[in-house]
Write a structure and sequence with these properties.
The protein is α/β, with parallel strands linked by helices. 39% of the residues lie in helices and 24% in strands. The strands form 2 sheets. The chain has a 5-stranded parallel beta sheet with strand order 2-1-3-4-5, sandwiched between helices. The chain binds adenosine-5'-triphosphate and magnesium ion (MG). The site of magnesium ion has 4 residues, from helix 7.
Length: 283
């Protein structure tokens, strides 16, 4: 069943994403998209994609690095390169890395669907046991957070809140998500250099990921203790810095993971269970 096939399109040009989505959805595939390699990696966390169509030239993380990552960590996911620069060298390079096929831009719907079905056939043959998971609606989004930027502090969690409200999620879950996101965001503002708040909503689970570049934590257990704080003086003058942020996230979430590297950064993964979503169809 085509509907059970999940395809991720990665391209920094919205027009390419739109046309891939239109053409492939029409064929019955379940299609999601990401505009940056790093978002694609996050979306692939649960290994639900059977095929990734990726551009080669993208800002921040190029397609080749993404392909290398997929080959190593998601070997049973097929890769097709979409490229506007089909030089012999880049094509050879991507095929050497294990890409199944390539489509050059601009492409016709037939070129795209042919390459897609060919690639799916080959990946199914190579990994006959990979479960082709049922289609899931995934909704994602992200906001940037700037360290020390008091003026905009809170805007990432506010944006999350309005997105969730637009999706018809029960208020109780929105409140817990917004509180957790706000605490995590404030930690980036107060303690780190810069960060990003991602959210991934899949079925009845909302996952918030707040990743920063910053000093990290030497002792995570200590940082989690109520009342422990190294908050700067300015934040205390504003009523923050009471050492209650991380405990508050734990109180409001259904799952919490923290991963911190000293002089590197910190990543929080926060799970909020959602029940009674009215609709999560607006993918
Ligand atoms: N993203 C981060 N990067 C580096 N250190 C952090 C980060 N988040 C928290 N910490 C460390 O953990 C401590 C406790 O964090 P927590 O959020 O519980 O309290 P706080 O931020 O100090 O104060 P409050 O959240 O009450 O305003 C911080 O003071 C800091 O030392
Ligand atoms: Mg805090």
């Amino acid at each position: 069943m085509q509907k059970d096939i999940n395809i991720l399109v990665v391209d920094d040009e919205p027009v390419v994403i739109n046309s891939c989505e239109r053409v492939l959805k029409e064929k019955g595939y379940n299609v999601h998209s990401a505009m940056r390699g790093k978002d694609a990696m996050l979306m692939m966390k649960d290994n639900i994609y059977n095929l990734v169509l990726t551009d080669l030239k993208m800002p921040e993380m190029d397609g080749i690095s993404l392909i290398e990552w997929i080959r190593q960590s998601r070997p049973d996911t097929g890769i097709v390169v979409i490229t506007g620069y089909p030089s012999h060298q880049t094509i050879q390079e991507s095929l050497n890395l294990g890409c199944i096929d390539y489509v050059s831009k601009p492409f016709t719907p037939v070129m795209l669907t042919d390459a897609t079905s060919r690639a799916l056939k080959r990946i199914k043959k190579r990994f006959p046991n990979k479960e082709f998971s049922p289609a899931t609606d995934i909704i994602t989004g992200y906001s940037y957070i700037k360290g020390g930027d008091i003026t905009n502090a809170g805007s990432a969690s506010k944006a999350l809140r309005s997105h969730l409200m637009g999706l018809g999620i029960p208020m109780e879950a929105i409140r817990r998500a917004a509180v957790s996101a706000f605490e995590a965001e404030m930690n980036v503002v107060m303690h780190a250099v810069a960060g990003i708040l991602f959210y991934i909503l899949k079925n009845t689970e909302l996952k918030l990921i707040v990743r920063d570049i910053g000093p990290g934590m030497e002792d995570v257990e200590l940082a989690m203790k109520e009342g422990y704080t190294t908050a700067p003086h300015w934040s205390k003058q504003m009523g923050w810095g009471t050492g209650l942020g991380l405990p508050n996230i734990i109180k409001n979430s259904d799952g919490f993971k923290i991963d911190s590297i000293v002089d590197g950064g910190t990543t929080l993964e926060i799970i909020i269970s959602i029940t009674g979503i009215k609709s999560n169809e607006n993918n």
